[in-house]
């Protein structure tokens, strides 16, 4: 995960990686850690700063005891195609010939020489500490860096994080200088590697009949960069580090259980306060050795749902008469469970209407774009959707918080897209370790969102890569079965309050998808299969879903992808492939077929909007055009057709 041979850092500097947070760490020796603690804490004490420790990954909500500063803006940026930056110590002397780049954003759509560049690039910015933060703990938090990020502050190596889409943080108390500028330097690379998740086809063994550029194992563009905000967070020395909220009902009373962790094994009084109802509810808690827990009972509770996405405000306050720390967050009181062939929200069955979608927009790439996010949610409401899947990676925390507000039901997915099981065992094991870590980080980050009702562990795992003429090697299905047995067990150990599934490719191994609490399957009859024949596509779908029922018993079924590419403005009568008419008619045929089966509890056309892909003979304009909206969010015929169908189904 990193180069431990750099002579400029030394053992003490290497151990600063421990500040990354709860996950994604690189191990280091206890002796080196002790040396670092002694030297860095002396430096912190000289500045009146707290001794450094693990950084909290909680979202930086502000309160009377907490403050944050968004470092987003125009940073300095430089490509490093020969990987000389570390050797030449750019993190000390500065970037030699930088240009400007916005953060957050992908770099690929901005610069002509970087569109297809996935190697190392460097970011640099300067900041000053707020004078009011003296004596407080200061952490540096990254919302996402794709794919591998290494971070320096004032020439000191902080650590690295491998895997995009999820946050990581460093405690920089004492390292961040007061009354003078601080230089923050970050190297990011997204090199295509066989042992990463997601990965690429093995060029030594995969016999491709279609070659894309760039070649990936998945059908979306591998955008690179700092994709989400970089934030400085100021907290008291003693502070809440983690919170887990679970909710239930006892008749008309809501039951809110809160467990939380405090740094440094602190012990003392605390209080849980819930507001938003007719009156505040307060429960005293005693924290012992850094652990506290309490229960709030909410009479006449307003249950969170798509129809009424009501959010209460929870404050976890440390201290007695004098407040030491106050962490605020919004929560929804709701339950989710699989019972028989139903997914039940608050005890009532739900049917999921919505889409798979992407974090994708012109120029920004996969960088957080709040106006686009709000527009997407407004269009989801307009069309009658109640849900979406975060295909095929974790979406931004801002998207999840907004989904809480709008009342969307979310299938939260890991980055485990197009996993292949014909590769060598060490490669498969390396992918497993990375995916298990990403799943841990995902659940840790999103466990308190009421919108998240289902964890998806992977999308379209396959025995051999797409677009290859290879035979399925012996043992590939069994290897995948064991892989997912481990991953499902890990997921259920992390969170027992939500169902777990994986999304199967059409006709994928039943042994894999059958391990889920819900059967999620993609189906492309009328496009990749029985192309151009809508009536035959519907008949084939009928056989597929009755086959799923026969193989998997009474588990609920969600058809998580179906649809057709449509070039905006192309029409045909009779409908034919690539026309808006064909796309709309095929989606309607799927919808009417699926609704005849009560055990089908969700239908997600692919996709919400057109999105960027690699260059390919299958992708006109390097776009997947299966969106019912164009990439700039103009509705195609399928959007208005779906709106009519979904509004009619809602009565």
The assigned CATH architecture of the largest domain is: Alpha-Beta Barrel
Poorly predicted sequence stretches spanning 5 or more consecutive residues: 1-39
- Give the overall shape: globular
Counted up, domains total 3
Q: Output mean pLDDT.
A: 92
Q: Tell me the β content.
A: 25-35%
CATH topology label of the largest domain = TIM Barrel
Q: How many runs of DSSP E, i.e. beta strands?
A: 32
Structural class comes to alpha+beta
What is the CATH top level name of the largest domain? Alpha Beta
Cα distance, first to last residue? 54 Å
Q: How are the strands of the biggest sheet laid out side by side?
A: 23-24-25-26-27-28-29-30
CATH superfamily of the largest domain: Glycosidases
Range of helix content: 10-25%
Task: Characterize the largest beta sheet: strand count, sense, and whether it forms a barrel.
Answer: 8 strands, parallel, barrel
CA radius of gyration: 25 Å
């Amino acid at each position: 995960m990193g180069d431990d041979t750099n002579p400029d850092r030394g053992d003490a500097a290497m151990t600063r990686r421990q500040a990354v947070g709860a996950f994604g760490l690189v191990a280091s020796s206890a002796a080196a850690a002790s040396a670092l603690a002694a030297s860095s804490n002396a430096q912190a004490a000289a500045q009146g700063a707290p001794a450094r420790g693990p950084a909290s990954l909680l979202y930086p909500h502000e309160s009377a005891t907490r403050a944050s500063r968004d470092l987003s803006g125009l940073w300095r940026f430089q490509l490093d195609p020969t990987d000389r930056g570390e050797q030449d110590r750019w993190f000390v002397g500065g970037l030699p010939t930088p240009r400007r780049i916005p953060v957050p954003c992908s770099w690929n759509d901005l610069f002509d020489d970087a569109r297809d560049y996935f190697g190392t690039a460097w970011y640099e910015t300067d900041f000053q500490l707020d004078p009011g933060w003296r004596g407080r703990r200061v952490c540096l938090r990254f919302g996402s860096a794709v794919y591998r990020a290494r971070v320096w502050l004032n020439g000191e190596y902080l650590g690295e994080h491998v895997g995009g889409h999820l946050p990581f943080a460093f405690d920089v108390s004492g390292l961040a200088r007061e009354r003078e500028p601080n230089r923050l330097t970050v190297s990011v690379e997204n090199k295509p590697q066989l042992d990463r998740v997601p990965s690429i086809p093995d060029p030594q063994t995969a016999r491709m009949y279609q070659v894309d550029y760039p070649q990936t194992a998945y059908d979306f563009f591998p955008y690179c960069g700092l994709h989400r905000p970089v934030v400085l967070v100021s907290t008291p020395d003693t502070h809440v580090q983690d919170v887990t909220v679970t909710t239930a009902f006892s008749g008309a009373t809501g039951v809110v259980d809160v467990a939380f962790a405090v740094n440094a094994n602190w012990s003392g009084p605390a209080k849980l306060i819930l507001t938003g109802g007719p009156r505040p509810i307060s429960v005293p808690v005693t924290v012992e050795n850094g652990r506290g827990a309490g229960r709030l009972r909410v009479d006449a509770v307003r249950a969170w749902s798509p129809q009424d996405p009501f959010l209460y405000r929870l404050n976890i306050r440390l201290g007695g008469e004098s407040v030491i720390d106050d962490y605020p967050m919004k929560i929804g009181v709701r339950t989710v469970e699989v019972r028989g062939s139903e997914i039940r929200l608050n005890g009532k069955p739900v049917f999921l209407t919505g889409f798979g979608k992407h974090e994708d927009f012109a120029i920004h790439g996969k960088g957080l774009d709040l106006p686009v996010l709000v527009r997407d949610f407004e269009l989801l409401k307009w069309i009658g959707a109640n849900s979406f899947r975060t295909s095929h990676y974790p979406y931004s925390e801002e998207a999840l918080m907004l989904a809480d507000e709008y009342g969307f039901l979310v299938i939260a997915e890991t980055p485990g897209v197009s996993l292949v099981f014909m590769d060598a065992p060490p490669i498969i094991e390396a992918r497993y370790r990375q995916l298990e870590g990403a799943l841990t980080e995902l659940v840790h980050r999103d466990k308190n969102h009421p919108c998240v009702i289902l964890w998806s562990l992977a999308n379209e795992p396959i025995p051999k890569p797409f677009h290859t003429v290879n035979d399925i090697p012996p043992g590939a299905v069994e290897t995948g079965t064991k892989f997912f047995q481990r991953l499902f067990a890990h997921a259920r150990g992390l969170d027992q309050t939500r169902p777990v599934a994986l999304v199967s490719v059409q006709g994928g191994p039943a042994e894999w998808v059958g391990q889920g609490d819900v059967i999620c399957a993609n189906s492309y009859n009328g496009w990749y299969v029985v192309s151009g024949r809508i009536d035959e596509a519907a008949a084939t779908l009928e056989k597929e879903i009755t086959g799923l029922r026969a193989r998997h018993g009474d588990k609920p079924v969600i058809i998580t992808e179906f649809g057709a590419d449509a070039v905006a403005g192309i029409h045909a009568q009779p409908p034919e492939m690539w026309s808006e008419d064909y796309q709309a008619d095929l989606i309607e045929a799927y919808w009417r077929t699926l609704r005849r089966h009560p055990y089908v509890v969700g239908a997600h056309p692919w996709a919400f909007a057109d999105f960027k892909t690699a260059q390919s003979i299958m992708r006109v304009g390097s776009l997947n055009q299966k969106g019912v909206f164009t990439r700039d969010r103009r509705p195609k015929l399928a959007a208005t057709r779906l709106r009519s169908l979904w509004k009619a189904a809602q009565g």
